[in-house]
Amino acid sequence: MLLRSLFSLFSPGGSRGRLSILIYHRVLPEPDPLLDGDPHADDFRWQMRLLARSMNPLPLDEAVRRLQERSLPPRAVCVTFDDGYADNAEVALPILREEGVPATFFIATGYLDGGRMFNDTLIETVRRLPSGRVDLTPEGLGERKLETDADRPALIRELIGRFKYQPAEQRTAETEALARRFDVRLPDNLMMTGQQVRDLAAAGMGIGGHTATHPILTEVDEASARAEIERGRDDLEALLGRAPHLFAYPNGRPEKDYAAEHVRIARESGFEAAVTTAPGAARPDSDPFQLPRFTPWDRTPMRFGLRLARNLAEPRERRAA
After folding, report:
1. pLDDT tens digits, residue range 201-232?
2. Which long-range contacts (CB under 8 A, 24 or more apart) does 233-241 make?
3. Residue 296 three-state SS
4. How far apart are CA 282 and CA 318, in angstroms?
């Protein structure tokens, strides 16, 4: 009751409505110490139950339309997923259906059917390295030790930071070469199949564009950015028989990861709205191509709810100028 009252205070609906949009990437079947930023099934279940009972979950396309029409219900919230992990279909979908919560899945189409994102190549490589010292001099990190529970997550963070802003083809090639150098066999079932994307759509979930290979758009030229955005759109249209209307900028930070020209490209590519990773809640006068989202990190219902309320009270969201 306390949380519901807080949500109503900060998100009264109508002309003063505010829209909370949550970002997820994965929902794990069980806790994983190397993926402690992602919820496991039990946590995700109570999170969705809290949203269903204390807020008004809406499909993102409907919420965007009603936000602009100033007809949002009080406590409006949307759930979104980025990238296209298989556990979205295998673990998250049954829980979403159980709790009656709609969601939108932004798919990086180049990794469907056996692909793997560079960060997962790094995570799964570090997971499989033997304990002891590891020589990462070719990666510019020198020698690292893998002895305590904290060593592997720390190394993963360093490696992701080292590769993240490389061009997509280069970072894929170099991270795969790292795995080969240590003779590591990597999983090829982390991302969805095309059929799983169709299954999500058939279940009434939204499907949105997220480029093909998830480049940081500010790190590629404009022609390459356009090609990535349009290829992701076209792949989804071929898969589902209709073009997606919603888009999520890879990584999504204004100016750092996308800029004004990418907002323009998204609009010119036929999308009707796009989401970022700038924190805050969208207002009726928010740019529909720069809608803010935030990640709910907390692992208890009260903290989770209070973070939702605090996000609703955030000042105006950041945008690419």
Report:
1. 999 999 999 999 999 999 999 999 999 999 99
2. 233/209, 233/269, 233/270, 233/271, 235/109, 235/110, 235/112, 236/107, 236/109, 236/197, 236/207, 236/209, 239/109, 239/194, 239/197, 239/198, 240/197, 240/198, 240/201, 240/207
3. coil
4. 11
Contact 79, 103 (CB under 8 A): yes
Alpha-carbon span 82 to 85, nearest angstrom = 8
201 Cβ contact list (under 8 Å, min separation 6) = 207, 240
Contact 87, 26 (CB under 8 A): yes
User: Torsion over CA of 293, 295, 301 and 307, rounded to 10 degrees?
Assistant: -60
Parallel, antiparallel or unpaired: strands 142-146 and 132-136: antiparallel
Q: pLDDT at residue 1 above 70? A: no
Query: What domains, with CATH codes, occur in the chain?
Result: 2-114+206-312 (3.20.20.370), 118-181 (no CATH)
pLDDT tens-digit series, residues 147-192:
988 999 999 999 999 998 888 888 899 999 999 999 999 999 999 9
Alpha-helical regions (H) of the chain: 2-10, 41-54, 60-69, 86-87, 93-99, 118-128, 151-163, 168-181, 194-202, 222-240, 260-268, 301-312
* 38 and 123 Cβ atoms separated by less than 8 Å: no
The region that residue 7 occupies, defined by phi over 0 for left and psi between -120 and 50 for alpha, beta otherwise, is alpha
Rounded-to-integer distance, Cα 206 and Cα 211, Å: 16
Q: How high is the pLDDT of residue 304?
A: 93
CA nearest to 89, candidates 10, 168, 26, 134? 26
What is the per-residue pLDDT across 32-88, written as a single tens digit (0 to 9) for each?
999 988 999 999 999 999 999 999 999 999 999 999 999 999 999 999 999 999 999
Stated pTM of the model: 0.95
